[in-house]
Amino acid sequence: MQRQAQRGLLKGMNPRVTLVTFVVVTVSLFYGTFYTERLGQGLALARGVLDPFLEWYYVLLVAFLLLFMVWLGMGRYKNVRLGGDFEQPEFSFFSWVAMLFAAGTGVGILFWSVAQPILQFQDNPFIEQGMSPDAARVAMRLTYFHWGLNGWAIFSFVALVLAYFSYRWNLPLTIRSALTPLLGRRTEGVLGDVVDVLAVFGTVFGIATTLGLGVQQMNAGLEAVFGLQSSLLLQLVVTAVIMTIATLSVVSGVKRGVRLLSEANFWLSIAAVLFLLLFGPTQYLVAITIESAGDYIQNLMGMTFHTNATRGDAWQSEWTVFFWGWWLAWSPFVGMFIARVSRGRTFREFVMGVLLVPTVITIVWIGLFGGTALYHELFGNGGIVAAVDSNIATAVFATIEAMELGLLGRGFSAMLVLLIATYLITSANAGTLVINTILAGGDPEPPTAHRLLWGGLLGLLTAVLLMAGGLETLQAAVIMAALPFSVVVMLMVAGLLKALHRERYAARTGERVEAPREPWADLEDAGTQPSPVSDDETHKLH
């Protein structure tokens, strides 16, 4: 087992992983605070150098994960359960889906559901003429692509692997556990520490990036509703308030704080959708959502493997590379959070739930918000394109203003500000809990003092990235943070396949063994090691 400090400030934590990650984050904070301009320039330079490589590397990795998850959910291992053979899910289906969506894409989709369709509507490499009805359909298709099945394949893969090794093999709920079939007891040493450090590094910068985007949007909402002038100072104040609430709520744990907040913003999201259906261009919204969803499904494979090989523009780097980097950077955080709430579900149920349900919700959300904005640009008074080009964070509120609903629209804007706040709090407290779970060696209830510490550090890092240059710096930071963890993802694929193969072998030979209570002692000799498959599960794996 991993070593945890028994006393002192690091009591209950893995001392090496905690100290290394703390030093890395602290150095980043120091450098970003006193050399803000250099930080922004350095991230931009690194991104420019790596973009040609990432344009095909991220594409290939994400395409593989999508196909791999479909195979896991429909293939020979579809009946494997994340836990004991007869274990039932801990949360109801509604609570489960609410937490999946809130932690996974809540903040990001609020920011981009209007901004991305409007930006793609103006110009993208797949249309000849922008600002046209055909451009609107393609813009919706591209937005679905970056928020649909491919991204959720990343989240669902990491989550499934973590849940499988934790609940079926009784290993700690950390990233390193997924490499046990490959490294054996070496995962308890330096190699395992490196893996967990990379996971925390990606998670910290992924969360800080998304919080930065959400804070910018909330700033725009406060200006639209209350007339508060948009400024860096206001963004820093909002960051401090959000992180204070999130850090305090995370102390209450998943079953109370995170679950209740997730369900609250899920209901607010439903209210927002119904509002647009009632007061927006209903017929157009239904039509564009259905049409663009069909267009997305029809072009899915072509978009999945698109690498921008024959074009000289920067679209692939600015959009696909950024979004795949964002999903990868968030995957340790969201994956571990989804794993924590998914115990007792089979591979098939898990894949259907985590891959398909959030994708359908996302399509509906983008169809209504993005469709409303496109309708007013094509057939209404417009003005949304100009607002987005001036300040991308104002996209949603410019759309509401274009609806010309007066006091009703102002009330809807206020509700969206509240929704953004609840999504920010949910993402921040879930992320803080996950970071501390990794640092505590998989303990689902890490020390309260460290939850408070890392909540504060996340808030400070978000503030530093906002000061370093806004959106471009946030995008560059998340892409760089995702790159090292992408190597760990490939190793996790190999580890899962090796473990599943051993399960299938045990099922075929009729060997009756129980799940080990301790990590595998030595997996180099697979023929002598235990398998978690019991006789009751044997028929499911043939």
Automatic annotation (TrEMBL):
Topology in membrane: Multi-pass membrane protein
Superkingdom of source: Bacteria
TM regions (residue ranges): 17-36, 56-73, 93-115, 149-169, 190-213, 233-254, 266-286, 321-339, 351-375, 412-440, 452-471, 477-497
UniProt-annotated location(s): Cell membrane
Region (Disordered): 511-542
Keyword field: Cell membrane, Membrane, Transmembrane, Transmembrane helix, Transport
NCBIfam families xrefs: bcct
Protein's name in the database: BCCT family transporter
